[in-house]
């Protein structure tokens, strides 16, 4: 019996072992799949805009031919679906469309790659999906290309795509074919991408204007135009010495007093007030995209109502050569029968009266913006001197001329900019000469300056 | 003599029977003078067994369930009873309409938003930022910082980063790995990873992971400064994040 028992056990062992081995042998048959289609590696899909519903989006596809994969590439099909499972039902994300799309940057680039016949459609290749609701795009090479397994990265862009209308993830199933008719399926894969709702960050910038005028003391910034143009000006007229400018005391009827009287025309210095040391300046800063102007008008309110130098409370009958004995100093142009607001030279004969303004220089204050003078016949952008430059002419004016101007009845522009202005300065000179017949007295005029930005 | 033969036979029988127990079968206790085996179980996975006696102690396990992502520089595996074979991408970004307020040359505007990324069965992902710099209604485009720069009030600047900041104020946050860094592996690109420094170049890579990753929540901080001549208007930064996984 023992022998029988032992023998029986040996038999059982043999049977059990055989069963195990038999089971093991079966396994490889169940684990194997198709040996012909491999999975593309390094697969990716990139969008240049990821907001839902956006049109004109470029989809960039990229995939590497796998090691052991097909070395002939004739065509590619991509199906955009709601799942990545190749061979199953494929429904395109709502709103996604290839309508009007074009092919760009294909690699391989040889062999005339194009969007293939029936380039877009809705029925996927059976290896990629089923149904008829896919968003399908196809690319084919007229001459199938040789690619290197494990090395060649196939890529292409599809432009003009409309993104899905809902946020979320969608999938691209991509299949390669060795022929250019989407028949001989080779390698494939799937990738995911997503679109999001609108992402907006916003902020506001208000319109700005900082405009000021003041009197600059000659001792703060020297009056010569070149010095003023090169000086570092403190923003917002931070160097102003008030708003009064004195032309001094004319020593005779042939001397024109020009600001700053104490230095520019020293014989006009009255010595009794520091105001004869001043000249005028303005500063402008604005973010107006379309630029700005600086202008002025004579302020006829208050005690000085004649729009030119006059004594307080006076009313003058005229401002031409025949009116040199009243209590108004004729503007330089009107005294010489030149139109109001048109340039004229300072005349130093004893009989003339003249009052005028010039803007000799702009200070850009190390900015990149450009406030520009007006040196036309109706402008003010001239030397600021009585003589020494080119003689003033109403025809063919230039900034090198010794011209002066005044507008007694309206407003005039002194400087302009075509874009934003970054704390730039404008120099302003006044000049006056009395006639031998001008009554004595204290003459003054108020000037109203303004700036008009265009946003 | 016969007794010896019986003994051999008995031992042989016991040994053979033990081998034939596969797969798992619970046997009666095995004891000897120097050992004791209680509730031995050989074969099926999933259990821990204590093996102990007065002269010995041991624990044995025939295996346990592995769940989640394991990876190194040359490999990646995903374990679990119900792992999927489908590539997956999830970008968590709700609609955003963030108004930073009114800009001034005297101070810096800032604000932040969040988005999250999760990928599955990917070699990694790269996050790109898409969109022109803030643009005004007439078409003026703000100057964007092309290299990491600190904010300067009164100078026209636009930039972003993806870390926690103290300048211009306490704003932004470092990436947060959900639930922790053993499951999620997102990182900020170096160009956007310096606190209090900002940059914006359209189509730049701003974040990445080198493997599949659970959710990493990123925070984008936006920084705006204007100059005295930056045109007036309402500026809009219309942008999106393009997450590109590689499978």
Question: Can you offer a commentary on this structure?
Answer:
In chain A, strand 10 (168-177) and strand 11 form a beta hairpin. Chain A has helices at residues 2-31, 225-230, 261-264, 332-335, and strands at 41-47, 57-64, 72-81, 88-91, 102-107, 113-121, 129-133, 135-146, 153-161, 168-177, 185-195, 199-205, 209-217, 257-258, 278-286, 292-299, 344-345, 354-358, 362-363, 372-373, 403-404, 411-417, 421-433, 446-453. Mean pLDDT of chain A is 88; it is low at 1-35. The radius of gyration of chain A is 44 Å and the shape is rod-shaped. In chain A, strands 13, 14, 15, 18, 19 and 23 form a 6-stranded antiparallel beta sheet that branches. The termini of chain A are far apart. Chain A folds into 2 domains: 41-195, Immunoglobulin-like (Sandwich); 209-453, no CATH class. Chain A has 455 residues and is mainly β. Chain B is mainly beta and 247 residues long. Chain B has 2 domains: 2-61, no CATH class; 88-246, Immunoglobulin-like, CATH 2.60.40. Chain B is 7% helix and 39% strand. Chain B has 1 helix and 17 strands. Chain B has one helix at residues 2-19; strands at residues 30-31, 36-37, 48-52, 57-61, 68-71, 76-79, 88-92, 96-102, 109-120, 124-130, 135-136, 157-161, 176-177, 187-188, 205-209, 213-225, 233-246. The longest helix of chain B has 18 residues, at 2-19. Classes of the chains: A mainly beta (455), B mainly beta (247). The interface between A and B is large, with 57 and 63 residues.
């Amino acid at each position: 019996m023992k022998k029988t028992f032992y023998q029986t056990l040996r038999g059982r062992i043999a049977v059990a072992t055989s069963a195990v081995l038999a089971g093991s042998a079966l396994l490889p048959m169940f684990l194997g799949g198709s040996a012909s289609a491999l999975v593309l590696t390094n697969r990716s899909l990139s969008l240049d805009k990821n907001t839902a519903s956006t049109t004109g989006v470029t989809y960039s596809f990229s995939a590497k031919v796998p090691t052991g994969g097909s070395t002939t590439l004739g065509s590619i099909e991509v199906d955009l679906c709601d799942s990545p499972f190749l061979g199953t039902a494929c429904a395109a994300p709502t709103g996604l469309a290839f309508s009007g799309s074009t092919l760009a940057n294909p690699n391989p680039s040889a062999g005339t790659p194009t969007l293939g016949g029936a380039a877009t459609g809705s029925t996927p290749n059976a290896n990629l999906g089923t149904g008829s609701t896919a968003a399908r795009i196809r690319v084919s090479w007229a001459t199938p290309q040789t690619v290197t397994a494990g090395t060649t990265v196939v890529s292409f862009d599809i432009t003009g795509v409309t993104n899905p209308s809902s946020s979320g993830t969608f999938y691209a199933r991509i299949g390669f074919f060795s022929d250019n008719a989407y028949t001989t399926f080779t390698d494939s894969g799937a990738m995911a991408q997503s679109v999001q709702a609108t992402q907006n960050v916003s902020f506001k910038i208000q319109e700005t204007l900082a405009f000021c005028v003041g009197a600059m003391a000659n001792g703060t910034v020297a009056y010569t135009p070149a010095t003023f143009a090169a000086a570092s000006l403190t923003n917002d007229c931070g160097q102003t010495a008030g708003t009064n400018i004195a032309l001094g005391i004319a020593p005779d009827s042939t001397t024109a007093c020009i600001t700053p009287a104490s230095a520019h025309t020293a014989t006009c210095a009255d010595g009794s007030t520091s105001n004869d040391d001043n000249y005028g300046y303005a500063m402008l800063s604005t973010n107006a995209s379309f630029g700005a102007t600086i202008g002025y008008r004579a302020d006829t309110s208050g005690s000085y109502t004649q729009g030119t130098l006059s004594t307080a409370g006076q009313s003058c009958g005229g401002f031409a050569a025949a009116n040199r004995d009243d209590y108004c100093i004729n503007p330089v142009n009107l005294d010489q029968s030149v139109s109001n607001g048109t340039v004229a030279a300072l005349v130093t004969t004893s009989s003339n009266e003249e009052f005028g303004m010039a803007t000799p220089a702009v200070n850009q204050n190390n900015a990149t913006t450009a406030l520009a003078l007006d040196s036309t016949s109706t402008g003010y952008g001239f030397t600021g001197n009585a003589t020494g430059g080119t003689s003033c002419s109403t025809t063919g004016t230039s900034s090198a001329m010794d011209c002066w101007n005044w507008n007694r009845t309206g407003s005039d522009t002194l400087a302009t900019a075509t874009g934003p202005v970054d704390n730039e300065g404008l120099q302003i000179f006044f000049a006056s000469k009395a006639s031998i017949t001008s009554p004595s007295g204290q003459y003054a005029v108020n000037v109203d300056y303004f700036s008009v930005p265009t946003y | 003599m016969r007794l010896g033969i019986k003994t051999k036979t008995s031992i042989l029988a016991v040994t053979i029977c033990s081998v034939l127990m596969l797969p798992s079968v619970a046997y009666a206790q095995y004891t000897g003078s120097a050992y004791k085996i209680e509730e031995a179980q050989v074969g099926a996975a999933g259990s821990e067994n204590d093996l102990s006696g007065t002269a010995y102690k041991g624990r044995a396990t025939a295996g346990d369930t592995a769940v989640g992502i394991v990876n190194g520089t040359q490999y990646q595996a995903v374990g679990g009873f119900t792992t999927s074979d489908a590539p997956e991408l999830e970008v968590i970004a709700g609609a955003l309409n963030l108004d930073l307020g009114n800009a001034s040359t005297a101070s810096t505007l800032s604000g932040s938003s969040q988005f999250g990324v999760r990928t599955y069965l990917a070699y990694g992902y790269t996050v790109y930022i898409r969109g022109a710099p803030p643009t005004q209604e007439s078409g003026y485009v703000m100057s964007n910082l092309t290299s990491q720069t600190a904010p300067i009030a009164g100078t026209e600047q636009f930039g972003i980063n993806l870390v926690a900041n103290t300048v211009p104020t306490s704003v932004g946050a470092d990436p947060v790995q959900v639930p922790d860094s053993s499951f999620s592996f997102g990182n900020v690109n170096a160009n956007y990873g310096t606190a209090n420094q900002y940059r914006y170049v359209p189509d730049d890579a701003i974040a990445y992971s080198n493997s599949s990753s659970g959710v990493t929540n990123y925070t984008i901080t936006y920084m705006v400064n204007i100059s005295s001549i930056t045109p007036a208007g309402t500026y809009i930064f219309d942008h999106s994040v393009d997450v590109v996984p590689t499978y």
